[in-house]
Amino acid sequence: MIKQKRLFIMLFSILTACSTTSSKDGQNNLGGTHFYSLSSLPPEAALNNKLRIGVGPLEIPRLINRPQIVSRKDDTEIIMAELHQWGGSHKEELIQVISDNLSSLLGTEKIEQYPWKFAFKPAYQVRINIERFDGELGKNITLKARWRLIQNNKEVLVKRAVIQSKINGKGYNAYVKAQSQALKDLSQQIAQQIKTR
To answer: How far apart are CA 64 and CA 114, in angstroms?
Structure first.
């Protein structure tokens, strides 16, 4: 009986030590895995419901197409945070946030994500290839992307965006907020080009 009690106390001590391990950003992980979601601009009242926008296809590197939030320790070493993960598919969330941002910025609800139904005929299609989307905790997010604007089935513009977004804080919550801001900046660049046509 005494041996069983000692074994129980040893196991309890090991489990307690594991559960209070600190993460890289200095936060205790007492609550287990933390899940995050990107944020988009608040919806605006539709002003131009004749404007139809198709968003996609959207391509992202395999490096960030995973549940774990990916950051960098330096230029060559990456960190995959097992205890800080996306709440759903990262790729699906990226295209949803960009779609929501464009809907708000352009004042239209007629936005569809690729692949859309045959009956949907967009006046503009935005194809996006994200090449890099990460950064160092507590520093900056870097978003590198190439995007193409197609008007009435004809490519009219090819742009490369390099966006830096400052991280205001040390943890992963601040990291994700900075990523959301970078996506807003990219969406504003795209919306501006559509507005000037």
So the answer is: 20
Closest C-alpha among 127, 124, 66, 71 to residue 95: 127
pTM: predicted TM-score of the whole model, two decimal places: 0.84
Residue 17 belongs to some domain of the structure: no
Domain with residue 64: its CATH number is 3.40.50.10610
For residues 174 and 166, give the distance between their C-alpha atoms in angstroms, rounded to a whole number: 9
Asked if 46 and 107 count as a contact pair (C-beta separation under 8 A), the reply is yes
Q: Return the closest-CA partner of residue 51 out of 101, 120, 146.
A: 120
Q: What is the pLDDT of residues 95-153, one digit of tens each?
A: 999 999 999 999 999 999 999 999 999 999 999 999 999 999 999 999 999 999 999 88
Q: What is the pLDDT of residues 10-66, one digit of tens each?
A: 444 444 444 434 444 444 455 799 999 999 999 887 677 789 999 999 999 999 999
Across the chain, what does the average pLDDT equal? 87
Do the Cβ atoms of 128 and 161 come closer than 8 Å? no
Q: Among candidates 190, 62, 179, which has minimal Cα distance to 125? A: 190
Look at residue 2 and tell me if it is in a domain.
no
Instruction: Quote the tokens at residue 187.
Output: 């969406």
Which segments within 19-139 are labelled E, that is strand? 34-36, 53-59, 68-72, 78-86, 111-113, 124-135
